[in-house]
Amino acid sequence: MTIKKTVEDGVETFEAEIDGEVIQWDRGLSYSRHLQTDQLLSSQTPVSDKPDEMLFIIMHQTMELWIKLMLHEAGVAMGQLRADELAQAEKTLDRMATVLRHMIQSWEVLATLSPHDFLTFRGFLRKASGFQSHQYRELEFRLGLKRADLVLVHNDDAAKRAKLEEALAAPSLYDEVLRVLARHGFDIPGDKQERDFTQGYEPSKAVEDAWLAIYTRPQDHWPLYSLAEKVTAIEYYFQEWRFKHMKTVSRVIGQKAGTGGSSGVNYLVKALDLQFFPELWSMRTRMSAPKEGGNYADGGACPV
């Protein structure tokens, strides 16, 4: 095999024919350097000698990477909303929903861990728990679920606590959506647009009325209606992710307490009642269909 060497832009470059293809590489940016694969692939450090622990580590590491992408995209979406770039925000929200669907399916991999498999190394984990995921907590804050007491878990890490406190105090994705409604002429109360964002969001009838008006006449408010459906999809898939998490944990450990001291499955069940965008859901109950068609009593008006 012959390797051709040249210099391009001051960088030594190589070229060779491999498997019928002309392949090029250089001493500049490589696949490994770009993706930091050496660091990535050396970051799996089991604390036991049990073979199934590797699955557990990689599963959760990949989940953390997807959550990191969700945080990145949420930041992009909020910037687009602030700029009233609704079509661009929809594309970003679509990507977030796609990531969530992937995260939902990834629980299938962890579900291959039988109760016996997990118990071979669970004792080595001590108090390490997913409850301590600062990225997951930040994602909840960024989407709109603010619970200040959960920051306490990260008191021993100043940098993580500061990041969470910043997210806690900042407007969430839902806050930015409500500001969009206000800029488009809807009567959104001032205390929903500017408030102490560290406090949990309290549902508002005025906000629910705004969503109801948009959904009752979508043809008159199509950009907002379409945006609302994209936002709703985020919570829909997030809740499906939570549900799949709960069922996977139930399958693997039953009703045992979590390693971090929570009630385990029971705690995860409670999380299914938590909402990011409450009025987008409550509004649906108030919607009604107009009465149309005949009474069908004599059978004559009933379509065949």
Brief summary of the model shown:
The chain is mainly α. It contains 13 helices and three strands, in the order βββααααααααααααα. It has a three-stranded antiparallel β-sheet, with no helix packed on it.
Question: Can you give a write-up of this model?
Answer:
The protein has 2 domains: 4-33, no CATH class; 52-286, Methane Monooxygenase Hydroxylase, Chain G, domain 1 (Up-down Bundle). Helices cover 56% and strands 6% of the residues. The chain has 13 helices and 3 strands. It has a 3-stranded antiparallel beta sheet, with no helix packed on it. A hairpin with a 2-residue loop joins strand 1 (4-8) and strand 2 (11-18). It starts with a strand and ends in an 18-residue tail after the last helix.
Index terms:
304 residues; mainly alpha; Methane Monooxygenase Hydroxylase, Chain G, domain 1; 13 helices; 3 strands; globular
> Roughly what is the average pLDDT, rounded to an integer?
94
The rounded Rg comes to 25 Å
Order of helices and strands: EEEHHHHHHHHHHHHH
Q: How does the helix and strand content classify structurally?
A: mainly alpha
Give the strand tally: 3
Proportion of residues in β-strands:
5-15%
- Largest β-sheet summary: 3 strands, antiparallel
Shape: globular
Instruction: Please state the second-level CATH architecture of the largest domain.
Output: Up-down Bundle
What number of structural domains do the residues give?
A: 2
The N- to C-terminal Cα distance equals 75 Å
Number of helices: 13
CATH topology of the largest domain: Methane Monooxygenase Hydroxylase, Chain G, domain 1
Helix amount? 55-70%
Q: Can you list the strand order of the major beta sheet?
A: 1-2-3
Poorly predicted tracts of residues: none
CATH class membership of the largest domain: Mainly Alpha
